[in-house]
Design goal:
The chain is an all-alpha fold. It has one domain. It is built from 8 helices and no strands. α3 runs antiparallel to α4 and α6 packs antiparallel against α7. The chain is globular and about 50 Å long. The protein starts with 10 loop residues before the first helix and ends in an 8-residue tail after the last helix. The mean pLDDT is 90.
Length: 190
């Protein structure tokens, strides 16, 4: 049985494509305000998807879903000239990702195993535990986003997105190393 593998992005390039639009959003907001930043974010996220597709000939589901939500809520922000929509967008994305992960567990399909199978090889129990942790983390981020955007200025909220959520996510991912090590398995022979 012959399998074809999709080209993989260099991890540093993947990080640039994932974080680049957010960083551009931050800088545009600091110079021109939330509405220019929102338009910049929308263009940058589409450009990142196009670049990713050009290099791998596939579109990962999470970035596509994120882009759709960014375009919808960014569009509402610009059309209605109301920053509330772009501020609520992360809450919806985080809650959606958490719900999808829990839904996968409910149907006995730990979806993180599908997303990360080429990077990590874990036992079924390991995938279940990791999925639970990430789902709860996404729900916590949704709640945290709601607290920050409702209680702080727009500029503080944007700073939180870049200097709060990104480091928290990297820290949370790093804290999963013991679980990854404990439940690691050997990759299946091809």
């Amino acid at each position: 049985m012959e399998t074809t593998t999709n080209p993989q992005l260099n991890p540093l390039l993947k990080l640039v494509l994932d974080l680049g639009p957010l960083i551009l959003f931050f800088f545009a907001n600091s110079r021109y305000g939330i509405f220019v930043a929102t338009a910049t974010f929308m263009v940058a996220i589409v450009a990142a998807l196009i670049a990713s597709y050009a290099m791998t000939r596939r579109l990962p589901i999470m970035p596509v879903v994120t882009a759709i939500i960014v375009l919808v809520f960014g569009g509402l922000t610009l059309i209605l000239h109301d920053a509330t929509f772009i501020k609520v967008k992360p809450t919806i994305i985080y809650a959606l990702f958490g719900a999808v992960l829990l839904g996968g567990l409910y149907f006995n399909k730990p979806l993180l195993g599908v997303v990360f199978d080429s990077l990590f090889h874990l036992t079924d129990e390991g995938w279940r535990k990791l999925t639970w942790r990430w789902a709860l983390f996404f729900f916590a981020l949704a709640v945290l986003n709601e607290i920050v955007w409702r209680s702080a200025s727009t500029n503080t909220w944007v700073d939180f997105k870049v200097f709060g959520v990104v480091p928290l996510t990297f820290l949370f991912a790093a804290l999963q190393a013991p679980l990854l090590k404990k439940y690691a398995t050997e990759p299946a022979a091809e």
